[in-house]
Amino acid sequence: MDVDGYSFSVTPSLSYFVIDNLSIGGQATYSFSDGDYQSKTTEFILMPTVAYYIPTGKVVRPFVALGAGYANVSMEDMSFSGLTWAGGVGAAFFISNNISIDLMAEYAELSARTSNNSNYKYSTKGLGGSVGLSVYF
After folding, report:
1. β-strand pairing of 99-114 with 79-96
2. CATH of domain 5-136
3. If residue 37 lies in a helix (H) or strand (E), which one and from where to where?
4. If you average pLDDT over residues 111-137, what whole number do you get?
5. How many helices (H) and strands (E) in the chain?
6. Residue 98: which residues within 8 A CB-CB, separation 6 or more?
7. Among residues 19, 45, 49, 92, which is most buried (max CB within 10 A)?
């Protein structure tokens, strides 16, 4: 028996260095998943972020990042809204002064409720990894 499913996710982010090695910014995440044995799920997240880059004087800079924001999760017949937060560690490979390719391991949690019946809750948490492209202004 074959079980089919698919998912898509994109997370653009922009940051600004307010002082040396400290950036503030934000990110927006859109994800979509569907399959044979799961509900069609759409997720939208807006999250302000802060990151500290450890000054190494090299092209590769380790960093720590933290963010918290708003999440909306929609399933076929329900919608949930609530708080999400994430924290992680990684390394930024700067290919120029304001562009980096980032590798990061992070822990994230999302906790949300329906607006029409607070007895229904949606919660998820876990470890993940990401590869990204960052542009700093």
Report:
1. antiparallel
2. 2.40.160.20
3. none
4. 84
5. 0, 8
6. 135, 136, 137
7. 92
Angle (CA) 65-11-117 rounded to 5° is 95
Which residues have a Cβ under 8 Å from the Cβ of 87 and sit 6 or more positions away? 64, 65, 66, 67, 106, 107, 108
Closest alpha carbon to 15 in 67, 61, 57: 67
User: Has this prediction a pTM greater than 0.85?
Assistant: no
Rounded-to-integer distance, Cα 57 and Cα 21, Å: 11
Q: CA 35, CA 114: separation in Å to the nearest integer?
A: 23
Q: Report the C-alpha gap between 66 and 1 in whole angstroms.
A: 42
Domain ranges of the chain: 5-136
16-21 average pLDDT score: 90
CA 99 and chain centroid, separation: 19
**Using CA atoms, how far apart are residues 68 and 55, in angstroms rounded to an integer?**
25
Residue with tokens 């934000």: 26
